[in-house]
Here is the input.
Amino acid sequence: MSTMTLDASARTEAAQAELLGVESVAHSAEVRKTVGRPFIEIAKLRMRDVNVCYGEIQAIHSVSLDIGCNEVVAMIGPSGCGKSTFLRCLNRMNDTIEGCRVEGELSLDGEPIYGPKVDVVPLRARVGMVFQKPNPFPKSIYENVAYGPKIHGIASRRAELDEIVENSLHRAGLWNEVKDRLNKPGTGLSGGQQQRLCIARAIAVSPEVILMDEPCSALDPIATARIEELIDELRANYTIAIVTHSMQQAARVSQRTAYFHLGHLVEVNDTETVFTNPEHELTEAYITGRFG
Amino acid sequence: MTDLTQAQVRERIAKRLASRHRKEKLFRGLGIASIAFGVLAVVILFSDIISKGSGAFMQTAIQLQVHYDAQVLGIDTVDDESLAWANFSGVIRQALRERFPSATGRSAKRELYSLVSSGAPFTLRDRLADNPKLLGGSETVWLAADDDVDTFVKSLKGSEAGFRGRTSDQKAGWIEQLLGSGELKKRFNTTFFTNGDSREPEQAGIRAALMGSLFTLLVTLTLSFPIGVAAAIYLEEYAPKNRWTDLIEVNINNLAAVPSIVFGLLGLAIFINFFELPRSAPLVGGLVLTLMTLPTIIISSRAALKAVPPSIREAAMGMGASRMQVVFHHVLPLAMPGMLTGAIIGMAQALGETAPLLMIGMVAFIVDVPGGITDPATVLPVQIFLWADSPERAFVERTSAAIMVLLSVLIVMNTCAVLLRKKLERRW
Amino acid sequence: MEMHFDQHISRQFNEDLEGIKTEMLEMGGMVARQVADAVDALSNADSQLAEKVLRIEDEIDRSEMALDEHATLIIAKRQPAASDLRMVMSVTRIARDLERIGDEACKVAKMAIALTDEGTSPRGYTEIRHIANAVRRMLNDALDAYTRFDVASALRTLAEDEQVDMDYRTAVRELVTYMMEDPRSISRVINVLWTLRSLERIGDHAKNICEQVVYLVEGADIRHGHEKNLRKP
Here is the structure.
C-alpha cells in the first residue's frame, strides 16, 4: 500500500499514466472494481451492473450502487465522468435522448425502473428531479407548485390543492417569502428562490426520491447555503441523490459520496472517509485538486 | 517566436489603429448607404403609387335635374319587371338636353350624352326602386361622369389645358361650364369600394377582389395553420431522428423554394381536373395557396418550437407530464407567438400571390361580389394585374388604388401579427 | 498509498504545501540541534552552551507561530482535502510537539546550568546519557520518517519509546534508592530526576511525531493506543 520511493520522476510518470486514465482505465482491474461501500442492507434504489451507451459511446461502465432511505448520496467526479447520466437513469430522463441505451438492473423498492411494462409517468411522480439551472414554468408561483398535483390528479378539491401548495412551499422554506405573491410569475423570483420553487414543485407530488443535478451551480453562496440547509432538512422524509461539482458541498450535505471517473464508479464511501482518507488514488487525486 | 517588449507591441497596435478605424467607418458608411437606398426605393414606390392612385378615391359627378317621366320611361307602375325594362337612359338624355339646349345635331347630342357614365341609368333605377313615389316627379341627382370626363377634369390644373384624349372642344366647353356653375364636382368614390370589376372604369370597384382574397385567405388559414403546426409538432417533438424524417425535412425545405406557378399547375391537375372542384373558386385558390404556404408555416413553427428552452421541457417531463402534456401545457404556449408570426408571414405571401391563381382560372372577369368560397371570384393581385392590362386611362389610377388597398391589407395583417405576438409573448 | 504534494493543478498550492513542510522540517532541525546541545551542555558541564540553548527558544516559538499562521491560511484559501488536509493538520500538530520538545530542552539546559553550579557528580549521568541518546535518535528518526513519508520507519521509532520509558523507570528507581542511601544528595538528584523526566517527555513527543507520520500517510489515528485503526495492507 504505502510504496515509499524517493525516485520522484518515476513516481510522477506512474501517477500521470494513472491520472490521465487512458491506459489505466482501459485495462486496470483496480478501476473497474468499485472500492468502498457501494452496497447497504436496506436499499431504496438498487442499481446493479448499469451500462449506458449513447450510440457507440459507452458513458457508464457497469456501475453498481445502492441508495438507502433518508440518505443523501453525493456523486462527484470530473466533467463528463457520467455522474449526471447515471442520475438521469434513475427517473428515466435519459429516455428522451436519441440513441441512449440503458442496460442493467435498476429498481426502486424492488420494482424495476426499466422494462416494457413500466410507465414512466408514475415513476417520475415517485422520483422527482431538480435541475442545474432553476427552470420554473413561465407561470405563477402557485401554478408552478400546483402543476404536478394537477396532472397526476392528486388533489380533488381546490382547498386540498391550496394546502398541498402551501405545505410544499413551507417545506422548501419559501412560503414566507412568496405567500403574498402566489399569483406573480415564478420567473420573477431570484435565482435561489427559483431553485427552491423548483424543489417545492418537485416535492408537491410527494416523491420518495429526489434527484438533484448540480442544484446550486447557478447560485450565489448564500442561496447555496439555503439549499444545502434545505437538503439536510428534506433528508428526514426523502431519499436524495445529488450530483455536484463542489466537493465542499458534497462534504457538507451527503452521508455517502460516490466518485465517478470516466464512466466508472471508482469509490463509494462514507463522506467523512472520502474527504479525509479516500481509499482510491483517483478519488484522492480528484478531491485534492490534482487533476480536473 | 520573437519576444516583443510591451512598448513595441503598443507601437505595432498604434500603427494598425488608423487603418482599423478607417475600415470601421467605411463599413458603417456602407451600411447607412444601403439602408438609405432601401428607404429611397420605398419612398419612390409609395409616392408613385399614391400620387397615381389617390385620384381613384375621388370620382367626378354631374348634377342633373331629372324628371322621372312615366312616358319617357315607358312604364306605368314601379315593380321589378317594369324597372328592368324602363328607359332610364332616355330620362338622362332628356335632362342633359334640357341643361344644354344648344346641342343640336346627332354628333353633338352623342357628345352630350357621353358626359354621363353608362352606369348612370342604374343609379336612377335604384333610386326609383327605393322610392316609387318619385315616378312622375323630379329631383336633383349627382350622376357619375364618364371616365373620359373624369380623366379630363382630374388633369385640369389651374389655367393649363387638361388631358383631352377623346374629349372634343365642344365637350370641354360644357364641362368647364358645369364646373363653373358647381354642377360638376369630384366626390368620394364609394363605387370603388362597393362594386365588382367592370369594363367601365368609373363603375369598376375592388369589392369582388377584396372578398375573393378574404375567402381565399380564410380557406388557406383554416387549412394551413392547423396542418402546419401539427406537422411541426410531430416533426419536432415526436418523430425519431432517422433517414425518413431527414428526407421529409429536406423535402419541406425544397417545397418552400418551388416556384409558385408549379403549385398552380398542381392545383389545376388535382383539384379541378381530378376532384372536379369549381373553377375560379376561392376554395380551390385557398387549397393551392395552402400547399404553397405550408412549408413556410412548418419551417417557422419548427423554429419557434426549437426556440423553447429545453429546460422547460425537462422540468415538465421531470414532473411526470406525458409528452402531450409537455407540448400542450408548456411548449405550445411559448412557441405560439413565433408560430403566429410565421403563419401571418405565410398569409401575407399568399395574399400577394398571383401566378398559381392564374392557373386555376381566378383570372376571369368577375363582376359579381362572391358570397361564398365556391362562387367564382378573383383576388386583389389578379385584379391589379387585370386593370394594369386595360387600355382605358382611368384604369391607371385604379390600378394604383388597388395596390394601395392591397398594401394596407398587408400592413393591417402585419400589425395584427405584431400585436398578437406582443400579447402572447412571455418571458422566461 | 504514495504521497506527493507537487501535482496539484494550482502551482501555488504545491508551493504552499511544500512551504509549510519545509518550514516544519527546518524547525525540527533546530529543535533536534537544541536537544543535542542541551544534552552536551549537561554532560560537559558547559554552561555557555546551555545559555545558547535558552536563547534559541525564542526563535522556535516564532517558527511555531509562523507555521500555524501559514497552515491557517492554506485551510482558509484552499480548503484542503484528504492527504492535503492531513498534511496541514499533521504539520500543525508536529509543530506543537516540536515546540514542547524545545521547552523540555530548555529545562534540560537550565538543569545543566544548575548542576554545573553545584559541582559535578557522576551519579545519574550515565542514565541521562543513555536516555538522551535514545530520545535524540528517536527525534531524528521521527523527522526522517516524516521527510520520507516512511510509515514502517515511523512505527519502528514509535516502538522505541517503550524502551525509553522502561529505562526511565529503572533510572528513577535507582536514583530513589540512592537518595534513601544518601539524603544529602537529595536536592541534586532531584535535579537529575527532572532532567530525566524532560528527556522522557521528549521521547513521548517524538513518538507523537511518528504517530502523525502514520496519520499523514495512512489516514489512521493511532494515538492513545488505537493502533488497530491502522488498516493492514
Notes: The two ends of chain C are 10 Å apart (CA to CA).
